[in-house]
Each structure stands twice: as structure tokens, then as C-alpha cells.
């Protein structure tokens, strides 16, 4: 396995783990689409959805 393939495989596994941890069933109501992309290539690795409620506190962007 090349170094690039090993990095991409590890990135894909982590993206799947992150989306799996936050994804919610599509049961109606407003949704946010969450995408995980490889920072080095810009390639989208995973996509999931989370629901939100109208009237809740304002969403805040949090950077690591």
C-alpha cells in the first residue's frame, strides 16, 4: 500500500466514524447536511444529516 493510499484509507475511516457518531435519522423537520472533506485534497469523504429545531439558541461556529 502506498503512503497516499494509506493516508486516504485512514482519512476515510475517520470520516465514516465522525459522520456515524453525529448522523440522525431523516424523520422530517429542518436538517443540516454535514460533510467531511480531506483538507489536503478537498475531496468529500462522507456526508450525513442532523436535525435542528427552530427557536433554539443561535448556532455557533467552533474551531478546533
Would you kindly provide a written description of the structure presented here, covering whatever features stand out?
Helix content is 31%, strand content 23%. It has 64 residues and is an alpha+beta fold. It has one domain (3-51). A two-stranded antiparallel ribbon has the order 1-2. The protein is elongated. The termini are far apart. The mean pLDDT is 87.
Topology:
Blueprint: H1 3-22, E1 31-37, E2 44-51
Antiparallel strand pairs: 1-2
Provide keyphrases for this structure:
64 residues, alpha+beta, two-stranded antiparallel sheet, 1 helix, 2 strands, 31% helix
Characterize this entry briefly.
The protein has 64 residues and is an alpha+beta fold. The protein has one helix and two strands.
Continuous helix count: 1
Order of helices and strands: HEE
Strand order of the largest sheet: 1-2
What is the rounded distance between the termini?
A: 31 Å
Structural class: alpha+beta
Please state roughly what percent of the residues sit in beta strands, choosing from under 5%, 5-15%, 15-25%, 25-35%, 35-45% or over 45%.
15-25%
* Coarse morphology: elongated
Average pLDDT: 87
Number of strands: 2
Give the helix proportion (percent range).
25-40%
Poorly predicted runs of 5 or more residues:
none
What's the story with the biggest beta sheet? 2 strands, antiparallel
Over all CA atoms, what is the radius of gyration?
15 Å
Amino acid at each position: 500500500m502506498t503512503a497516499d493510499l494509506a493516508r486516504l484509507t485512514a482519512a476515510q475511516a475517520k470520516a465514516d466514524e465522525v459522520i456515524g457518531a453525529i448522523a440522525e435519522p431523516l424523520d422530517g423537520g429542518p436538517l443540516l447536511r454535514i460533510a467531511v472533506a480531506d483538507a489536503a485534497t478537498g475531496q468529500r469523504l462522507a456526508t450525513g444529516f442532523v436535525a435542528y429545531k427552530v427557536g433554539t439558541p443561535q448556532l455557533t461556529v467552533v474551531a478546533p
